[in-house]
Amino acid sequence: MDSSAVVTLLLRWAHVLAAVVALGGLAFARFGLLPALAEFDADARERIHDAIRRRWLPWVIGAITLLLASGLANFLIFNARVKAAPDFWGATWMRDTSYHALFGAKFLIALVMFYFSSALVGRGEGTQWVRNDRAKWLSVTLLLGLAVVLLSGWMRQLHTGPNQPPAAGSTVTTN
Predict the structure, then answer these.
(1) pLDDT reported for residue 95
(2) Buried b (16+ CB within 10 A) or exposed e, 148-173
(3) Where are the domains of the chain?
(4) How far apart are CA 164 and CA 89, in angstroms?
């Protein structure tokens, strides 16, 4: 495996793991933490939320940073690969598959998700409205995350193709 393949693999892993942390934390907060906290009085809930916020905020910032950095790097590497092999991809592959439009939609949805994720663990007055209705905004943020994951899967399918068995008589080689 050459060094560029290792870098590409590490970037993909970083991207996927950051997404797992971000979405896993949102799912836990929405379906585990909030229902459990309903048994406590409002003052105790706020103290618990504050204690969790202090510990979870660095993870949210880290996941967002890693998603932006690895996502940009993955996008640039993939674009360079497509442009370097027009005979393989076809001169109009990105336009024919609407790849850039899908990427744009994914990126914009992700930015909205990052905003709500940050607001949910923030403490500023400007985003207090999000924390005032945590269940609603955790649900919205999870749905945005699901949309990003679904778009990612669609985009990945565009350049890897469907899982199909090899044609009769063909051989599969590995390096």
Answers:
(1) 84
(2) beebbeebeeeeeeeeeeeeeeeeee
(3) 3-157
(4) 19
Question: Could you report how far apart the first and last alpha carbons of the chain are, in Å?
Answer: 8
Whole-angstrom distance, CA of residue 68 vs CA of residue 62:
10
With a cut of 90, say whether residue 160 has pLDDT above it: no
For residue 117, give the amino acid letter.
Answer: S
> Rounded distance, CA 142 to CA 120, Å?
12
The alpha carbon of residue 21 and the mean position of all alpha carbons in its chain are separated, in whole angstroms, by 9
Q: Structure pTM? A: 0.85
Tens of pLDDT, residues 26-82: 999 999 999 999 999 999 999 999 999 999 999 999 999 999 999 999 999 988 888
How far apart (Å, rounded) are the C-alpha atoms in residues 85 and 22?
35
Please, how many CA atoms are within 13 Å of residue 83, restricted to the half-sphere of its CB?
6
Q: Which amino acid is at 74?
A: N
How is residue 9 written in tokens?
């693999």
Place 102 in a pLDDT band, splitting at 50, 70 and 90: very high
